[in-house]
Design a protein that fits this description.
The chain has 18 helices and 29 strands. By secondary structure, it is of the alpha/beta class. It has two domains: about 240 residues, TIM Barrel, CATH 3.20.20; about 190 residues, no CATH class. The longest helix is centred in the last third of the chain and has 17 residues. Keywords: Hydrolase.
């Protein structure tokens, strides 16, 4: 346990001191570097000594003993701390390893990750083994502990039991509780959730809120109950109201909420010029959104919008580290910190040309260093291809419900009255309605309705990727829907589009049907093809991956399709229960 609790053992610390004493050589020496010093809020010159994964000295001196040390003249280099992503959802088709490897190429070397997929799909022992093994990669991986499933599970009390949540909270790699998607239950008197918040506070860990559109009074109430931060501000006014109530405000730029440019304009209009209580996040965007960058893209936008340059970098580094009480390890270039360093071509260009992560080169002179992130034996953690031992039949595809689900945008859905005959094997192509089915991944239950606004000419789509890992079927042709399911089954999980009994496109997800094991660069290409084919068939929104993920997500209005059945979010009740097969 001590190996996990302390980053460096006593023998390592003694070795670090021996470098300063001239008894041991640094492994890397960065001479005469221009670097960002956040204490003085200045660009300063210094020599930076690194031993393995730690900065052991920053200052004017040079080491007296050098042997097998990589020495780099940094006279023309500009160095900033590695960026921190405080709100990663590392299961949006990609997986934690591929996300970390990809993000490192843009200078994001520390990620604070959602544990939702782990707590839903893995046993605690398997999940904690994965957390342990991810410590060995060049990036640094921290985690959150969820307090609710943000849907209506059939076994919620078992998964989010007190012992389970407490074990997660106590884990050394977990920095916060949340995000609090179930805060309405908390306000309604959920004392178990309040107890978990209290436990997190006792452990000196933060609580992240999820308060879209919250009023000033609600924000104040949630602050009293223990919330520390929120990432749901969509306007400058909402940033202001959160700052006034004492929140740390996480500014978002994501695939479904690319709000940052407008928020920064609003903040300028409102005269908000204090940035110490602000940080950046990308809220688990789809892989295609990351093609142009991750945290570096947000710093660039901030600089272009007139945010002082040092503040723009601080919102991606030291502000986050201070908030999460990890400043002794991250967010600054100073003695004792982990050697996460980004080398820039200019102060105004935050995308690094070279990156050190834990003292290892993961990018050098604009080129990715291959083999640094290796591979993982995913099946050791219970992440294997899906094995479905049941069949889907046309009899399962019976659609007789009086109302269906209408899409307002990528993630907001409302109920609507069904006025068409849904008994045929094929729905008319001129309508924007599709058959819509959620079926248990173990084949025990199903719920069928119609979905309006998703597509006009989609024959069939099957997806094992969803909020809960259950299977989504959408389409106009019941035969192709069965075919798409069967093909998805052959893949061991994935997203499959069928037309005239032929595969149009597919995204294999061989890690429990929820994640791909291919590099994000390849996943981006697969996702682009999927989006292109969906658009050609009438999908008009921004992000189909989030549409699939959030059909069951009860932290969003107004109607959801869940394991328990059709769910009315506002009234917290099940309209129609799921049907046992």
């Amino acid at each position: 346990m001590l190996e996990q609790r302390y980053r460096w053992k006593n023998k390592h610390l003694r070795m670090h001191v021996s470098v300063l004493e001239g008894k041991t050589s640094p492994t890397i020496l960065l001479k005469n570097a221009l670097y960002l010093n956040q204490t003085f809020r200045q660009w300063m010159r210094a020599n930076i000594w690194i031993y393995d994964d730690r900065i052991v000295y920053v200052g004017d001196n040079l080491p007296s003993y050098i042997e097998d040390c990589e020495i780099i003249d940094c006279t023309n280099e500009i160095i900033v701390p590695g960026y921190i992503e405080p709100h990663a959802h590392p299961f949006q088709l990609y997986n934690p390893l591929t996300l970390a490897a990809y993000a490192s190429q843009f200078g994001t070397t520390t990620l604070i990750n959602d544990n939702m997929a782990l707590i839903l799909h893995l046993k605690k022992r398997e999940a904690f083994s994965l957390l342990r093994d991810l410590r060995s990669i060049p990036s640094t991986m921290y985690w959150w502990s969820r307090f609710d499933s943000q849907t209506e599970l059939l076994n919620e009390e078992e998964i989010f039991s007190h012992s389970n949540v407490k074990a997660w909270l106590e884990h050394d790699a977990v920095l916060q509780g949340g995000e609090l998607t179930g805060w309405p239950k908390l306000l309604d008197g959920d004392d178990m959730m309040l107890h978990w918040i209290q436990e997190a506070k006792r452990m000196r860990k933060q609580i992240e809120g999820h308060f879209p559109g919250a009023s000033e009074k609600t924000l104040a109430k949630m602050m009293l109950l223990g919330a520390d931060s929120d990432h749901e501000a969509m306007t400058g006014e909402e940033v202001y109201s959160r700052l006034v109530q004492g929140y740390m405000v996480s500014l978002r730029y994501s695939s479904i909420r690319p709000d940052l440019p407008q928020i920064l304009d609003d903040m300028k209009r409102l005269g908000i010029e204090a940035y110490d209580r602000l940080m950046f996040n990308t809220d688990g965007s789809s892989s295609t959104f990351y093609e142009q960058g991750i945290t570096d893209q947000m710093i660039r936008i901030a600089i272009e919008k007139g945010v002082p340059i040092i503040d723009a970098y601080n919102m991606a580094t030291v502000n986050i580290a201070r908030y999460y009480n990890i400043e002794h390890l991250h967010g600054a270039i100073a003695t004792g910190r982990i050697a996460n360093l980004n080398f820039l071509s200019s102060i105004e260009n935050p995308t690094p040309v070279s990156v050190l992560a834990k003292g290892k080169w993961v990018k050098r002179n604009g080129v990715k260093v291959d083999g640094m992130y290796g591979e993982m034996s995913w099946d050791e953690y219970g992440l294997k291809p899906m094995e479905l031992d049941w069949q889907l039949s046309l009899d399962d595809l019976q659609f007789s419900m009086p109302f269906g689900i209408k899409m307002e945008n990528s993630v907001i859905t409302k109920p609507y009255s069904i006025s068409i005959d849904a008994s045929a094997d094929q729905l008319p192509k001129e309508l924007d309605e599709c058959y819509f089915m959620l079926v248990d991944r173990y084949g025990k239950w199903r719920i069928n309705t119609l979905l309006k606004g998703f597509a006009t000419n989609l024959s069939a789509l099957a997806s094992s990727y969803s909020n809960t890992g259950d299977i989504i079927l959408i389409g106009k042709n019941r035969f192709d829907m069965v075919n798409a399911f069967n093909r998805m089954k052959e893949l061991g999980g994935g997203i499959v589009m069928m037309e005239d009994s032929q595969v149009v496109c597919e995204v294999p997800l061989n890690l429990s049907g929820i994640m791909s094991d291919v590099p994000i660069e390849k996943l981006i290409e697969q996702e682009k093809i999927l989006l292109k084919e969906l658009r050609e068939r009438g999908y008009k929104f921004s992000d189909p991956i989030y549409s699939l993920a959030f059909f069951s997500a009860t932290h969003l209005p107004y109607i959801r399709i869940t394991q328990q059945g059709m769910y009315d979010v506002m009234n917290k009740s099940v309209f129609f229960p799921s049907i046992m097969r």
